[in-house]
């Protein structure tokens, strides 16, 4: 038995087993933590979409409070202001009912002086790659919008997407940087309804998938791998004992 436990090969196998178990346990707890975070986020989304609409005064009172913004994300807000049509971009790789299209994001300036991006929903792509999609132009007049509050940064919003044709049909990509003097807040809105019916999106940006995903299953899977590693080491130890008799 001493040889089965203390031989160089046995020690190496035992260390490898311990490292495997530790790695599987770490991966399992990581997946479990991700599942908990996602579950809490889903619960917050479900709760916030059922809350009453934030009035314009209530919305203006939290726009500079990151904690309050985070707490109210996905809640519907009402705000009045003006679209800035010259600051607009399209996001590719959006699909609705299996059809390829673009997301339209336009700069909006509220009457309180805040500038932020408004996701105006999905539009269908043109007939070919050279044909820009038909985007409903915004006016420069006052408009009241009802939209869902999004607190994640715009760069995270468009992660995995690419800037496409500007809505004026030009082929050059517009870059939103400091040279354009565009300064926006650290939140955005998903447009649901506008006082101008033409700007109410037919296909607004959908809610996130409200499922816990596979994280809890993956956590259990990693723990199972750890158990299999331990079980395998025990079997090898038993075989070594038999061979040494």
UniProtKB/TrEMBL annotation:
Subcellular location: Membrane
Alphabetized UniProt keyword annotations: Membrane, Transmembrane, Transmembrane helix
Keyword field contains Transport: no
Keyword Transmembrane: yes
Cellular component per GO, a single term: membrane
Regions crossing the membrane: 216-236
Pfam families: SURF1 (PF02104)
Protein name: Unannotated protein
